[in-house]
Amino acid sequence: MGTLFVALVIVVAVPAVFIAYSVITPRMPFAGPLDLLTDPERQVSDRLASHLRAIAQTPRNLDHYPALERAAFYIEQQLAEQGHAVQHQSFDVDGCPVRNLEVVIDPVSKPADMTTYVIGAHYDSPDDSPGANDNGTGVAALIEIARELKDERGLGHRIRIVFFVNEELPYGKTNDMGSLRHARMLRASGEPVAGMIALETIGYFSEARKTQRFPFPFAWIYPDVGNFVAFVGLLRARSLVKRSLFAFRSTTRFPSIGGVAPSFIPGIDLSDHWAYDQCGFPAMMITDTAPFRNPHYHTPTDLPHTVDTQSLARITLGIASMLRLLAR
């Protein structure tokens, strides 16, 4: 009887502890319709739509190399027009030169305890998909976040804004993955990284019931309406996810949830944050959970007109405000 009791305690306690650790908050900060867009949000929405039209009409990856290069050039051009100095991390893959693109925003005076926050998005698309949501939305948002932070003077920590190449298969989770190259560079330099945030598919939303799915066991906990953005991390990123989510909510009225899980949970490590976790850094992604919501995911119909640029504008400005709070 004693052995049976212990077994029952383990069967009940282990899942309970796992869920208690993983679920940071399933609750939304508010209910009801979103506020009307402000003028700044409307302007950002218009620019986001323009970025998507520029880079996400056709597939862009090493099988569609000219389009990949056009996307990289467009990103460089936008950042340069904002006044940023763009840095390259270049390497060759299958005989083709490719590059990560980066801008660095440093505090005016660098304190002795300065750490680094990395925020990034991959600019390649999967297979024969134009990738407007995957991951044109992350790229477009990151361009606008760079604009928002260009003249920021209140930082106490460094922010690295990075546009990655080669997140999608067959290069994802290999030595040719752009974010893995960047994460290894930071690890080799000894730069103290407080956290990495990947923007991954953040533009598809619905107010209808049963438009959202989750892998087991999270379907029992989180909502089935696909109207929220998720802050998702691997296990070592629990503190980063919690701080980021609460900072986002403190300035932004948009539905949001948060949690962490081990890498065997489907979808939990399917973005560039995986690379930084591999290098020992806390890493998370902000996502609309695309494969669990978006019918256009990894298909030729993932086009700009399917993206909700108004919601994307709210999220973009919210993430910029979140970064200001984290980096102060």
Furnish the topology, listing elements before pairings:
Blueprint: H1 2-22, E1 23-25, H2 39-55, H3 65-82, E2 87-93, E3 96-105, E4 116-122, H4 132-149, E5 158-164, H5 178-189, E6 193-200, E7 229-233, H6 238-251, E8 256-260, H7 273-278, E9 283-287, H8 309-327
Parallel strand pairs: 4-5, 4-6, 6-9, 7-8
Antiparallel strand pairs: 1-8, 2-3, 3-5, 7-9
Describe this protein's structure.
The chain is an alpha/beta fold. Helix content is 38%, strand content 17%. The chain has eight helices and nine strands. The chain has a nine-stranded mixed sheet, with helices on both faces.
Short characterization:
The protein has helices at 2-22, 39-55, 65-82, 132-149, 178-189, 238-251, 273-278, 309-327; strands spanning 23-25, 87-93, 96-105, 116-122, 158-164, 193-200, 229-233, 256-260, 283-287. It has 328 residues and is an alpha/beta fold.
